[in-house]
């Protein structure tokens, strides 16, 4: 089981220009005070940005996050979240993506992720 499966993050759409995810907030996502843990916003933002960045590299390459910035704008305790990520810059070795976490039309969090392209290791 990977992180997306464990947290029940749904991939709605991926392309080199945009990624859309969704999540229904459950108890597993909450901190002790009953609201969604802020780290979930980081997971959602980096996941969306990483999925998009990996659409822009060769088959023998993959992208990893090297910087993540998140601003939490609104607390949530229930309901469905939608995440949309788009690229700001797609370079040969670095990509910068931004993502927004929404609940209905309200912004819950915004973030930016810088990702670095790596060569996949080949087995000798």
TrEMBL record:
EC code(s) of this entry: 3.1.2.-
MF (Gene Ontology): 1,4-dihydroxy-2-naphthoyl-CoA thioesterase activity
Source organism, top-level taxon: Bacteria
InterPro entries tied to this protein: HotDog_dom_sf, PAAI_dom, Thioestr_dom
Pfam families (UniProt xref): 4HBT
Entry GO CC: cytosol
Listed name of the protein: PaaI family thioesterase
């Amino acid at each position: 089981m990977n992180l997306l499966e464990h947290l029940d993050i749904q991939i709605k759409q991926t392309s080199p220009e945009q990624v859309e995810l969704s999540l229904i907030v459950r108890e597993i996502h909450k901190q002790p005070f009953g609201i969604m843990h802020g780290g979930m916003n980081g997971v959602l933002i980096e996941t969306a940005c990483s999925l998009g960045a990996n659409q822009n590299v060769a088959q023998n390459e993959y992208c990893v996050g090297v910087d993540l910035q998140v601003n939490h704008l609104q607390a949530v305790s229930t309901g469905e979240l939608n995440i949309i990520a788009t690229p700001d810059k797609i370079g040969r070795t670095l990509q910068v993506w931004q993502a927004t976490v929404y609940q209905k039309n309200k912004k819950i969090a915004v973030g930016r992720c810088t990702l670095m392209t790596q060569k996949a290791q080949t087995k000798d």
